[in-house]
Amino acid sequence: QPVVFPPQTELRHREAVDQLLAAPRWPEAYQAVFSFDFEAALRQVVCPQLLLCGDEDILFPYLEATVNLMRNPRVHTFSGGAYILEQQTLEVAPIVIDFLSSDSTQLTLT
Q1: Which terminal CB of the chain, N or C, has fewer other CB atoms within 10 Å?
Q2: What are phi and psi of 77, to 5 degrees?
Q3: Distance, CA of 48 to CA of 99 (rounded, Å)
Q4: Please, which residues have CB within 8 angstroms of residue 55's CB and are 6 or more apart in sequence?
Q5: How many whole angstroms separate alpha carbon 28 and alpha carbon 80?
């Protein structure tokens, strides 16, 4: 069963505050999201990319199509819903650290 609402109180609080902050302009936010060409934007990204997704996340069905638009991303899926960063920190952190410390993510100044 996907996690629709954050199970922890702290996450619920953060979500509630975020919604309150966006409330007066939520129609504009939805319009911006649905009118933005994410496919074109993803095709233009040339920097290294790390994609993390829970297999019960509401967006999981779009993972393969998203990966196909990206240039050689590192992809990791986890068991769980939309809050893997907060709920599976010990599993996620080493992957993020490895990604950020890899040769492909280092800047070269010339």
Answers
A1: C
A2: -110, 150
A3: 9
A4: 77, 78, 79, 80
A5: 30
Instruction: Give residue 58's identity as a one-letter amino acid code.
Output: I
Structure tokens at 39: 């496919």
User: Which residues pair with residue 109 across a beta bridge?
Assistant: none
Q: 2 is written with which tokens?
A: 């996907």
- pLDDT level of residue 2 (50, 70, 90 thresholds): very low
pLDDT tens digits for 26-58? 778 778 878 889 899 999 998 999 999 999 888
Amino acid, single-letter form, for residue 109: L
Burial 27-62 (b: 16+ CB within 10 A, else e): eeeeeeeeeeeeeeebeeeeebbeebbbeebeeeee
Residue-by-residue DSSP string for 45-105 = --S--EEEEETTSTTGGGHHHHHHHSSS-EEEEESSSTTHHHH-HHHHHHHHHHHHHSGGG
Q: Cα(49)–Cα(65) distance, rounded to whole angstroms? A: 15
